[in-house]
Please model this.
Amino acid sequence: MTLTDHERQMVALVAEFVDERVRPRVREFEADDVYPAEFIEEMKKLGFFGLLAPAEYGGVDVSTACFARVTEELARGWMSLAGAIGGHSVITYLIKTFGTAEQREKYLPRMAEGAIRATMALTEPGGGSDLQAMRTQAVPDGDGYSVTGSKTWISNAAHSGLIGLLCITDRDASPRHRGMSMLLVEPGDGLTISKKLPKLGYRGVEACEIVFDDRRVGVDAVLGGTPGQGWAQMMRGLEVGRVQVAARALGVGQAALNDAVRYAQERETFGKPIWRHQSVGNLLADMATKMSAARLLTLDAAERLDSGERADMEAGMAKLFASETAMQVALDAIRIHGGYGYSKEYDVERYFRDAPLMIVGEGTNEIQRNVIASQLIARNRI
Model:
């Protein structure tokens, strides 16, 4: 897919930000799991939080393909920064696509400038990818709802001013997903956010458990104004989210490939650069080929989304292949670096710690295979 001149300039701006500001300093934040406040403030000023917001609300209003490329560049510098705009951008997309006029006016301008950062709350303790087993519920209460339940692994929870919450509003609905709604919940009484959950990678940006204990919201908190539409709304949002996660994987994989290519030219053994040894050269060839294939799958899914077509199969394929590729490429980069790849003096060990998140996040790859298979049959029934 061809980007516009404006979109190419945006991607170039992100690449410059990553190379000049992020990569030289990422270890200052990553090693001790420090929240990258100054990077986030710069990202706000550069418009990164408004990528999917319409121009009429102050957003940058880029295509999904451009959004994917921006995400890839951020993740090439530090995957956590791509995560900082992930859920926020999905909620932006959902409000833009399904929100009432009042909801768009209330939230989109401030979300576009980063004054309000959003996150999405789907996963529950013990539930994982099984959203049909959801227990968090919003019970009608006067002129609104009372929300009770808990969600976990919520990225950016402590720094978000808006939570896109998928919950049950009708326990008697059949099938069960028809009783789910998306609520736009702001912090306040009845909402508790835990401390950061410790993580292998994806450090700096927090992931927390959040607890709703009689958190009251008005009827105007229902996305789109009509209860019972939340499942369909979130499934569409997850198509965007999975393209974004695939793009994060591309960024991590590309960073690992770049470092491996550089090291393979600098390091010499037996009188020649190690890339000239067939075992190393073959690794590099396979890494580069898989990365190109993953990028094409991701851009294909993005293009399908932009066309308005259903893209759950394509987004699932992109997320599945790109995340598995990033994990393999990160491991192969360590192999190419030899013992140094196991040292924190080189960034390849960080890529290896960050890559697994894209395999288990935004619906595990086992779930992606289920989605792909079911859609494959649905589109090719005999």
